[in-house]
Amino acid sequence: MRLLTGPAGSGKTNFVLDRFREALCARNDAIRLLVPTATMAQHLQNRIAREGFVFRRGLIQTLSGFVENWAADLLQAPDSVLYLVVEEAARRVNRPEFAHVVHMPGFCASLARTIGEFSSAGCDSARLAACLPDAPLSAAFLAVYEEVDRELSERGLAMRARRLAHAAERIGKEGLNGIGAIWLDGFHALPDPELGVISAMGRHADLTLTFDGLDSRLAAMGFREECLPRSRPSPAKLLVKAPSVEREVEE
Q: Which helix (H) or strand (E) element contains residue 227?
């Protein structure tokens, strides 16, 4: 797996787009360009289309949309459902630490957001239990979190991190349905769930990731770093002094 690094303006995105264009010219559609947001995907689709290329829009898509092909059998819990599940779980667990606030909608909403943040970082209730800090409310929070995970599992639902882990497992076993090259561009943060998917994809395709730099997690995954130099020189600085105060005001 290749890791393209370099400062802003070094041409990482242009490098990826050049490889994408070369594949289109070779009539190769076993490729994917994956980006973090739908807005960026649409921008790149339009950019390549304006250059005269005809291609399926799915060749450029979000990582979430791409992963959906391997996670569709595990439904994601909508935010509204997660809130209701958290509300029910908090009341069912009935921890004394939360007794005075558990009936308040704002508390349950805050609890749902916090659980969502933990999940997005790849920390489910089992992982949190293994490294639970010694804090006043940690045990109470964990009890609610475990109940939420149990309830979602019984309903056949999951939060995003679990769906990504499920997709990574399926990709690792089943492959990528013939996709031979994948480029990932525009990512500035990659939590563990996303890295699990990327690692699985890298075992079945020629994968290139643009990123800010090589860290220990990427190195452990086997990425080879290629650092692109800055392609644009720093602008020259020129100090101009007006001959008079009046001229300075005019300027």
A: strand 224-227
